[in-house]
Design a protein that fits this description.
The chain has about 450 residues and is an alpha/beta fold. Strands 1, 2, 3, 4, 5, 15, 16, 17 and 18 form a 9-stranded mixed beta sheet that branches. α3 links the parallel β7 and β8.
Length: about 450
Amino acid sequence: MAVLIRDADVLDLSGLRKNSNIFVDDGRIVQVSSDIPAFSKIDYVIEGKGKLAIPGLINAHVHTEETLFANSIPDTANHIEWFQNYALPYYGALTQEDAYWSTLFSQALMLMHGVTCYADSANLWPLADAKAAERCGIRAFIGMWNCDLNTPFARPTDKCLEQMENLLRKLSKSTKVRAIASLIGVNTCSDELYKGTIALAKKHKTLATSHEASGHEDVVKCVKRTGKRPIEHLASIGFLTRQTLISHATDLSDKEVRLIKANDCAIAACPVTELKKGKGLWKFGKLVQLISSNVRICVGTDNANSSNNFDPIKSALFLSLLAKDYALNPSIVNARSAFCFLTKCASDIFSLNTGVLQPNFIADLVLLEKEPFLLFGDPYQALLFCDQPKIDLVMVGGEVVYLNGKLLKIDFNEVLKEVEKRSQRIAKRVLDHGHCKNCS
């Protein structure tokens, strides 16, 4: 479909372009200029006057299957208690249909926050989640829950790798929904599983991702088990590469920052989660060092009982504020850099041709109302620090999936009704089986 967005202001890392026309055809941006493009085929015209076009946002770490349980875990639970007493019992009660509706609901909420692409690295039902993504039109990177040690969901190493490769193959032909090679983390996965995972990521030209140094307790357990801190251990077994995306990285040493940089790994930071759970980001984190070392950074919202939101701008805001204050230096990261974490930096990490609004790039974009905060001043600051503007349009791969407050490919009211019903049912199943307390 050929779409013309007429007379919008355009913002990406190259700066602000006023009164521009964006012509999209066959899923890509063809032209961005002040001139009306002289193309005979225009199927759809969208008025952009008074609006700001930005690249679609990327939520680089999220767990969509957990949203049926949103706001159901006490915010006083520490990291280990949260996982053992609440998350694991919930997953034990989760059905494939539950996963589908939880994911569809999560995807809808992300689209409504301007997210055109997300990465989910721990799914029990990845094909159900992929089906939901295809239905609502969002771009997705989906990984399986893979571990071979110390959890009720552990499977033999060879079985994990076999199922991981099957998923990588099954989702290899989709233009929007792809698989990533994913692991839970160093305290639940063997060295053999890590080595096999990075080999599969290289074979299938995708990312390998895992949850590492997620909190101080994780680091203590890793040192006790392996004799090394998590990132040090992963470096010693060859898991750290340019294709490695480390989620969380809450508790790092200076040496580990150097290892991450030396191996050109990327970090998916989830600052709201770490702060909410009291995991030690302020005390043990190395945000300032990661930023000043030019480590590749993207941000994620994590899940509905960690940050409890699907707004990656909020994650970028918290990251920026923490770094500025910890460094006693507001120039350590500016609003434009935070905008990059959400767009071009993240796009490069996932090897997407998105993140800027220029010809030949994939047309993942968002159209925002400029009133009230985007009318004047620095638009990067307005997006990061001010209240979120109203979103008028979300386009993924040239397809309009959200317009004027309405999701176009799904009935959001239907999703809400189904999610509310299933949320009550799964809470009851968890309680009836005595898996956890305070789940109602």
